[in-house]
Amino acid sequence: MRDFIFKTEYKKLLTPEVVSCLTQIHEYKGQQSFLVKVKADALSNLLESAKIQSIEASNCIEGIITTDNRLKKIVRDKTIPKTRNEKEIAGYRDVLAVIHESYDYIPPKPSAILQLHRDLYKFCGKTVGGSYKSSDNIITAEQENRGRAVRFQPVSTLETPQSMIALCDAFQNARQDAELDPLLLIPMFILDFLCIHPFNDGNERMSRLLILLLLYRSGYIVGKYISIEKLISDTKETYYDAVQASSYNWHEGTNDYVPFVIYMLRIFVTAYRDFEDKIELLTTKRLSKPDRVRETIKKHLGKITKSEIMANCPDISQITVQRALADLMRSGEIIKLSGGRYTSYIWNRERK
Questions:
Q1: Where do the structural domains in the chain lie, given as residue ranges?
Q2: pTM (2 decimals)?
């Protein structure tokens, strides 16, 4: 079984790009703490929107989907989950809620992680969640014209319990060292968790829930208002590349954490930037709701869907958004890109 020595690996991470990201995040954190206090009323809709996005995105990455209407009902606990997918979505909803509400009381220990995994599958039957894997698993990747190939061989079934104990102990010891920034320790922990791959199913979704748990416990609560899971889903190819690059030679203890750490830090920076943009739109008194829709599209580079617009402006009704889009198309300020349910819009930057 390999050792987990966070402090030794930590020193290798302090590249100029990593330090730059850390500086930005620390600045954003202070700004967000102030905004959360003075703009509490404006944030309630943002919190609800982020929750829906997180539950949808984290499950969708794994192919766990349902209709938009059913998803919203499940998220709001307005219906009983029917299919296996819906039961897993409901489980994610409940675990996410527990983390949001009680993160201070959930230490990163094996027993707590097992309980969270149990609750992730609580609608799926007693034997599905809450236990480590019962057989060795492998991580595969699709190869062009060659089917699936083994990408990584996780820790064996027999070594899994002890590996989880060692990982959690090492992480908690590292967190006691004031010189070690948790923003670097958290991605390292998550990468190690993914390489152990302790469960038969649900490892990736558990890893995303653990990211939020560890961020919140360290005072970084941006994930409550901006969906970290959606940002990962939107860049999942880069995410998988970073995981692969950082897991190479993991069993030998010579892997390079830098690719995955940089990827996660960029996600955190993006989340804080998005938070600032959204809170600015939510709290700008001089702009009407149609003008806020207009500014949302104008500030967005590339295509944006109606759903994304509504996620950015969660307090604006669908009817108001539709009217604003129609007015903007008539004026020539935006261009509609047809695509059925994925119809999107783009700011007309050629317009004088």
A1: 6-281, 285-347
A2: 0.86
